[in-house]
Write a structure and sequence with these properties.
This protein is α/β, with parallel strands linked by helices. It contains 8 helices and 11 strands.
């Protein structure tokens, strides 16, 4: 039976939040789950960089031009990619690190043939460097990379347990949405992903599951429980 291909979008905060000590505990736990799912699932990962730098926050605080802030954020994802690869390899998971920004000393430049080879070799692919261009989020990058690996589904691992009508951290009356269409998500301007990501996923009929990556056995639950998290399709 063919393995189910998953593009996993990880928040950089799996290493720890800004201004807090870094920890490998969450990543090591996720690596263990990925190893256990290997017989049925092949995961590729897009990593964010928010634990180091967020253009929307630190970029504004510093008064940076949006383009520059985005470029710094993309470089932050490369640092996370290097750390991810090291930890995966230490725990016996063969990986290939790709970067959309050319830095051949640490990562391969993204190209479709190399991606296909890594998939054929059953490697866990790590995507860093964003899209290589400013003005695109890691959500949009996740949809792009999901198309390049022919993913069956995108999993967005974040710090909340699904999609809400409002930001649940700021609005106690926010209601959780179990399943929604792209058309409705765009109409309601739900902020769990940006509009470019919604539009691209809708155009290519990509299914997205959003869940709390910090929940116990999050990846196992996403693989086995259709009610875990929220679905956009």
């Amino acid at each position: 039976m063919a393995k189910k291909r998953i593009l996993l979008k990880l928040t950089g905060e799996v290493f720890g939040k800004q201004h807090e000590p870094f920890s490998a505990d969450t990543i090591v736990n996720l690596i263990g789950q990925i190893k256990e799912l290997k017989s049925t699932h092949q995961l590729s990962i897009v990593i964010g960089g928010g634990n180091f730098f967020r253009g929307s926050k630190q970029g504004k605080e510093l008064g940076l031009a949006t383009k520059s802030a985005h470029q710094v954020g993309m470089l932050a994802t490369i640092m996370n990619g290097i750390m991810l690869q090291d930890l995966f390899e230490k725990h016996g998971v063969s990986t290939e690190l790709f970067s959309a920004i050319s830095c051949p000393q640490v990562a391969k430049v993204i190209n479709q043939q190399a991606i296909n080879t890594a998939l054929d070799e059953s490697k866990t692919i790590l995507f860093a460097g964003g899209t290589g261009s400013p003005f695109f989020t890691t959500d949009t990058n996740a949809v792009l990379r999901s198309l390049q690996i022919s993913a069956d589904e995108i999993w967005k691992g974040t710090s909340i347990d699904g999609i809400y009508t409002k930001d649940p951290a700021k609005n106690p009356d926010a209601q959780r949405i179990e399943k929604i269409t792209y058309a409705e998500a765009i109409k309601q301007r739900l902020g769990i992903m940006d509009l470019t990501a919604y539009s691209m996923a809708q155009q290519h009929k990509q299914r997205i599951r959003i869940f709390n990556i910090f929940a116990p056995n999050a990846l196992h639950n996403a693989a086995q429980d259709s009610n875990f998290g929220s679905i956009i399709e």
